[in-house]
Amino acid sequence: MSREYNTVSMETVNIHQARVRLSRLIAKACRGEEIIITRGSKPVVRLVALSPASGPRKPGTLKGKPFYTPDAFAPLTAAEMEELGFE
What we know:
alpha+beta, 87 residues
């Protein structure tokens, strides 16, 4: 299976260059650029940043959703304390 790579919008580096400049290449990938790493003249790896797993946190998202039973914060009974190992 042959793949065509658009080298105009992507930086292409060989494996040796990638080793030497890895930190800089990662920074470029984090800015949205794609880097193709070649072995000789054959492309073997595409370096791209991972997309975030989720968006930014939004305060108040769970407002009104947690549900507690009326006795959730009541003191434990003697039997419950004993069951948990407290005397």
